[in-house]
Amino acid sequence: MHLFPFDPWLGVEPIFVDGMMIRPALDDAIKQDAIKYLPETTLPSLLHSDGSPVVEVNSFITFLRSDGVSLASAGHYARDLQVFARYLRDVRSKSLLDASSVDVGKYRSLRLEGPGELRLSGSSWKRTSAALTRFFQWAASEEVRLISVAPKTRFRRDGAVAEDTIRMIPLEDYILFRDQGLLDQGQASGITQRRNPMRDAAFAELLVTTGVRLEEGASLLIGELPTTNACVFQGSRTAMIDLPATITKGRKPRSVPFPRRVAGNFIDAYVREERSQLVDRWRRAGGVRTMRQPLIGTLAGGQRVLIQGEQRPRSLATLRIDERRNLLLLPGSGAPLESAQPAALWLAQDGQALTPAAWQSIFRRTSKKLSENMGWDLQVSPHTLRHTFAVYWLTHLIKAEVKRLDGRSVPDRTEEIYMKVVSDPLRRVQRWLGHASILTTEKYLTYLDEAFELVDQAAEALDSRLMGFF
């Protein structure tokens, strides 16, 4: 069983043997029409050793994407199911759909207590368990009915083995990573001739100040972030920006805070300088002819785009992630193709949209090189910055709530201290992060050095005011 990222366009390109074309490319008009019906590019797909598709897993992955699961998470689920299916075949002589509760239990023991090379961390098993649970629940659902009863996939002790995986860094360490690692300021980093330092620093600033997920930030289009002179910043240091449901986890749109400082000092500067150079280089290299499956369109006002061959403009918010990566924008109706530019905000050296995997690699290489030259370990990933955002904002909002309550002249005796001091900030950060459950956000509380002291401080302040009312 083998895992591949789905690429429908490999099947429509010309085939050459010894320099002779034995099959021509598919007609461009047919390809353009086929875009509507083909699965997403890079969608994880499993094949048996004989080349036939693993229908049940591929159908499940397609279902996950329709249910709002990110491409990255869908890929993790596919790999977890692939490994479990191989275990069933080689050790239990069973297929995936024949798995029993005993099989899952044996597999759990192997991955948590088996030989070192097979053993998973608690958090990795938690993800594997989630993949198995969701797959078998889907397979046993009334709509699918591939199996009659789902095997047991969760065990009483699973909560004890899943260690906390929240990793955040102090803001001082982040600034070091940004300035000496990504921007290469000073001589300490030893990283020379970075190709796009402004781009990389701008992306890091976006993550650490908005808390967006890697795939969400990587999927933004040019113009979706307000410039420093935008009216949304009128009289304010921060504006709320909208993330469309098509790029968010769970397919739920949400709004996040976006600082004017980041727009002016980072995003605008990157777009004006580095991105414009990347677009020019892309055009000189062939532009639209380098794209395998371009969607060519013209902005129609009101965050809408008119795609060539379509009758009505679409809202940019309705574009899928793969469509965003392949969208090219013309400056106006009737403009030549040579004037088109990629719509993606974040561009690689070849002018193509940067993938989440490419961003992971940039952060990993920068962390490694900076650690080597600084002489101490500094590991920063895109998700680290999301955690840092959460911990910082919870600390700030709890402090603000303590100050607000402490300044009241007439306290409200019906309010619970915890609910006001902790729960209100938690729910705000929950909305910004896009967590479905408040329990996920609550994990960050253990990383607030001052959280419990602040709660005690608020309790003391309110108690002193309430004493005269009882």
UniProtKB/TrEMBL annotation:
Family per similarity comment: Belongs to the 'phage' integrase family.
Protein name: Integrase
Pfam families attached to this UniProt entry: Phage_int_SAM_1 (PF02899), Phage_integrase (PF00589)
Biological-process GO terms, alphabetical: DNA integration; DNA recombination
Presence of keyword DNA-binding: yes
UniProt keyword list: DNA integration, DNA recombination, DNA-binding, Plasmid
Keyword Mitochondrion: no
Xref: PANTHER family: PHAGE INTEGRASE-RELATED (PTHR30349), PROPHAGE INTEGRASE INTD-RELATED (PTHR30349:SF64)
Superkingdom assignment: Bacteria
Gene Ontology terms for molecular function: DNA binding
Domain Core-binding (CB): 51-140
Limits of the Tyr recombinase domain: 164-460
